[in-house]
Amino acid sequence: MNDKCLVAPSAARNRDPILAVLRKILPSKGLALEIASGSGEHIVHFASAVPTLTFQPSDPNPEARESIKAWTEKLGLANVRPPVVLDASRPPWPLSWADVIFCINMLHISPWSSTLGLFNHAWEILPPGAPLYLYGPFLRKGVETAPSNLEFDASLRAQNPEWGLRDLAEVTEVARENEFMGPEVIEMPANNLSLIFRKT
Q1: 9-199 belongs to CATH 3.40.50.150
Q2: What is the pLDDT of residues 8-54, one digit of tens each?
């Protein structure tokens, strides 16, 4: 394996369940933008499964972008564009349009400003009705949080007080403020959720 190919063990576990959800919302053609692509394992897996769609990875971390390029080259994927530098919280984004946006496991390991920026800038580049897909652990009022998620939340906040599991109601309010409908909530393995919002 190319030594620039980073490996995130969770990606191998959750990529197929996530793909099963994405297959229901991805267009057959167009451009799919991933925010915070990390190692790149998710986007190359999805691009291999949906070869008619063009995928645009992004990440503010140069090591992550090198990994994305290495995975793309290793798998010989022609439908994955070179990764771009993108910080969800900081305009301008380097794209003027996308047909779908997905963001996996970012909200809880980034400051709240990244969540705000994600919805604000996603609204600017998505067409009406287009999906914004989020995946990760969330807190929900009236639903008991799994002990493992509570421990994870505490460990995140100990690392960085700006991190931590986000409250689904608060995320939904940000979505509505930015004229997104939803979310459709889908229970996922390991106490995670898939959230599908759509631009009005």
Answers
A1: yes
A2: 999 999 999 999 999 999 998 999 999 999 999 999 999 999 999 99
For residue 164, what are the CA distances in angstroms to 5, 102, 138, 187, 194?
Answer: 27, 20, 9, 19, 17
Is the link from the previous residue into 128 a cis peptide, with omega within 30 of 0?
A: no
Q: What is the pTM of this model?
A: 0.96
- C-alpha 58/C-alpha 71 separation (Å) is 14
The residues spanned by each domain of the chain are: 9-199
| Burial state string for 138-164 with b = 16 or more CB within 10 A and e = fewer than 16 | bbeeeeeeeeebeebbeebeeeeeebb
- Residue from 194, 175, 195 nearest 183 by CA: 195
Per residue in 125-141, pLDDT (tens digit) is 999 999 999 999 999 98
The burial class, CB within 10 Å (0-12 / 13-18 / 19+), for 68 is: buried
